[in-house]
Design brief:
heterotrimer, A mainly alpha (105), B mainly beta (96), C mainly alpha (213), B: mainly beta, five-stranded antiparallel beta sheet, 35% strand, C: 213 residues, mainly alpha, Nitrile Hydratase, Chain A, 2 domains, 11 helices, globular
Chain lengths: 105, 96, 213
């Protein structure tokens, strides 16, 4: 089988030479991964990150942007490893959204 | 563990299509190339990806492929190449 | 670098809109990142200070560090030899921390032009050159540069003579790659700092060359 992320040689349009300044949240996701994979922590390998991204499936892979894929994979890996639970994740996410709502008021 | 191939050896990438986390790209499966460097040994990513240690470590090579051997319709000159990092367990020796 | 993305007349910035930062100010994924960070800090996996320092470290990385190495390699053949063997070790000589993931440098010559891609994900020497440009991670670049390198390079304004070999490196495994571009003609009298100023990020990815002066 050929998986959707394995795209070398496939047809595609012109390379749009886009770039953007990475936003703080994107850098924080990058930082989470570096901290989890560093020699001190060794909680998660780059290949676990990659596997988690590949396993998002073709729909999410194309729909999510780069760091959305990363945080999705990191989160799934941390749940699988028992480092965090779905329930506490959900609670913290609701709190984060509520805090953001307050800043918008 | 000692490297099974040396620089200059003709090799072929196994034509296998297992599911799972694999770092051997589809476009070189079954293709012939030449070992252009022996990089060293690294934990096997196919194991690392699932939280296992990835031992024994696998030798990693640079394999140089002629572009015309990868793509039947390659538009550039014959000396154009692609160099891919390939783990030893994906390579078989090839008589030339 | 690209100024042809001003699709929106009201958009004042030189980069395209990012749907995650401007259009939808707080997405589920952003909430997820915040929640995961808090949980990992609560569980003493790392500290808030570790996080802050790591973001600062990421911010400190830019193509300027790679450019300094290229300029030194152009002026010091012995350094170049060491850099081609082991970028991470050579970086230390210039007080540059290139991280622990091994980086390999491939040298452009009059006979061969190198270009870097990661077809399977988007591996990039981020510990040395900083975070990659978006196009490097794009489906179009990852799919096409391995199969039609000359056409993709032409889209970047880079024409490689048919007499020169194009060599595309797919960083599929544990190495990261950078290109040592050729020193431009006309730069003979320049000092190392001035030379470093000529070296672009794209020339170290291999999608462009440094034009003769």
């Amino acid at each position: 089988m050929r998986r959707h992320h394995d795209m070398g040689g496939l047809d595609a349009g012109p390379v749009e030479q886009t770039e953007h300044d990475y936003s703080p949240w994107e850098k924080r996701v990058d930082a989470i991964m570096r901290l989890l994979s560093d020699e001190k922590c060794q909680l998660m390998s780059v290949d676990e990150l990659r596997r988690g991204i590949e396993n998002l499936g073709p729909g999410a892979y194309d729909e999510y942007n780069y760091y959305e894929r990363w945080i999705s994979s990191i989160t799934n890996n941390l749940i699988e490893k028992g480092v965090i639970t779905v329930d506490e994740l959900g609670t913290k996410m609701e709190e984060a959204k509520a805090r953001w709502q307050e800043t918008q008021a | 563990m000692s490297a099974r191939f040396a620089v200059g050896d003709n090799v072929r990438v196994r034509e296998a299509y297992p599911p799972g986390h694999i770092r051997t790209p589809h476009f070189i499966r079954g293709k012939a190339g030449v070992v252009s460097a022996v990089i060293g040994t690294f934990a096997n990513p196919e194991e690392l990806a699932y939280g296992r240690p990835g031992t024994p470590k696998q030798t990693l090579y640079w394999v140089t492929f002629p572009q015309t051997g990868l793509w039947p319709d390659y538009a550039g000159p014959e000396h154009d190449t692609a160099v891919v990092d390939v783990f030893e367990h994906w390579l078989v020796g090839e008589q030339q | 670098m690209s100024d042809h993305h001003h699709h929106d007349d009201d958009w004042p910035y030189p980069h395209p809109k990012q749907p995650d930062t401007e259009d939808a100010p707080f997405t589920d994924h952003m909430a997820m990142a915040e929640a995961v960070t808090e949980l990992l800090i609560d569980k003493n996996i790392f500290t808030a200070d570790d996080m802050r320092k790591m973001v600062e470290y990421i911010d400190s990385k830019s193509p300027a560090e790679g450019a300094r190495m290229v300029a030194r390699a152009w002026t010091d053949p012995d350094f170049k030899g060491r850099m081609l063997k082991d970028v991470n070790a050579a970086a230390k000589e210039l007080d540059i921390d290139a991280g622990t993931i091994p980086i390999r440098c491939v040298e452009n010559t009059p006979e061969a032009h190198n270009v870097i891609v990661c077809t399977l994900c988007s591996c990039y020497p981020r510990m040395l050159l900083g975070l990659p440009p978006d196009w490097y991670k794009s489906r179009a670049y990852r799919s096409r540069v391995i199969r039609e390198p000359r056409k993709v390079l032409a889209e970047f304004g880079t024409d490689i003579s048919d007499a020169v070999e194009t060599r595309v490196h797919d960083s599929t495994a544990d190495l990261r790659y950078m290109v040592l571009p050729m020193r431009p003609k006309g730069s003979e009298g320049m000092n190392e700092d001035a030379l470093a100023g000529l070296v672009t990020r794209d020339s170290m990815i291999g999608v462009s060359v440094i034009k003769d002066l």
